[in-house]
Design brief:
Layout (H helix, E strand, L loop, with lengths): L2 H71 L11 H11 L6 E12 L3 E13 H13 L4 E10 L8 E13 L9 H4 L33 E6 L2 E5 L5 E5 L3 E2 L2 E7 L4 E8 L2 E8 L3
Antiparallel strand pairs: 1-2, 2-4, 3-4, 5-6, 6-7, 8-9, 9-10, 10-11
Length: 285
């Protein structure tokens, strides 16, 4: 075999091995990479189309959001931010933090989730001045955060010294949001309540005993009218002290109703534990 033929055979074998190796590498190694990159390209193209659609829809979505936000912020009511029982308790504390004479126990019952909102259920029971209790309940129901008061029970305290005090209990449903939405809640807003009556229906119309005169007010029935000058009168009270009063001034169980210089008398309007009467003092001659 000549030298040229041998070299040709060697070159052909080398070429065959190179081509075969390259083909084997492409088929068994590069093809998997190609398939992987092709799949990624499809994913990126799909993601790009989705983002492109969002970009095209954004102006309309923003306009819809701003309109919805304006509507929500205009509502009289708002939902709690979460189902935190501490958030409900803190809200109650804020409502009674302005000096309301109400003392209560807060008991968390459970939290119930619905499709678009949830409810925190609680039991409230305590004692307090009747007027303060009614104000507390009204603040809960008419305040900005959405609360629903149910099964209210109010009973008088069987003690004449605390005749304006009552015991109470009710169930409280506090509604919270499951889909967060930007909104602004101010303390001033949720403390606004509608005008309501705070007359205590449990207070007796006529007291069996009169309260003590702890402020040492003038007891008209034990006093003497000495004189008057214009819109003022001068009396000697139950302690023998000289006192000056003008129309409207408070006395024990009532107030100075009117003064008549021509008749030389002063008329007092008294409320003796539910019995109203006019008592007249005349200057002694």
């Amino acid at each position: 075999m000549s030298y040229a033929v041998r070299n040709t055979i060697i070159l052909l074998i080398t070429l065959f091995l190179f081509v075969g190796g390259t083909t084997f590498y492409v088929i068994y190694f590069q093809q998997n990479k190609i398939d992987e990159l092709t799949a990624q390209l499809k994913t990126y193209n799909s993601d790009y189309q989705t983002k492109l659609q969002i970009t095209n829809d954004y102006p309309q979505l923003l306009d819809t959001y701003l309109q919805a936000k304006e509507i929500v912020l205009g509502y009289d009511k708002s939902l709690y931010k979460s189902n935190s029982s501490y958030g409900v308790f803190k809200y109650l504390a804020d409502l009674t933090g302005d000096g309301l004479e109400v003392f209560y126990d807060y008991v968390f019952v459970d939290s119930v989730s619905h499709e678009k909102y949830g409810i925190v259920n609680s039991d409230i029971q305590g004692t307090g001045n009747y007027s303060a209790v009614i104000t507390f309940i009204n603040k809960l129901e008419y305040g900005q955060l959405l609360n629903k008061v149910e099964n209210i029970s109010i009973s008088p305290v069987n003690n004449e010294e605390d005749m304006n005090y009552v015991t109470f209990n009710f169930k409280l449903k506090s509604y919270y949001q499951k889909m967060p939405f930007e909104e602004t809640i101010s303390t001033a807003d949720y403390e606004e309540i509608f005008t309501h009556s705070t007359f205590n229906p449990f207070s007796p119309l006529i007291l069996s005993t009169l309260p003590a005169n702890v402020d040492e007010l003038v007891e008209i029935e034990r006093s003497r009218l000495l004189g008057m000058a214009g819109s003022r009168i001068y009396i000697i009270d139950q302690f023998g002290k000289s006192r000056m009063l003008k129309q409207g001034d408070k006395v024990f169980m009532g107030h100075l109703e009117s003064i008549s210089t021509s008749k030389r008398e002063a008329v007092f309007a008294l409320n003796k534990g539910g019995i109203n009467e006019l008592y007249t003092l005349t200057i002694e001659r």
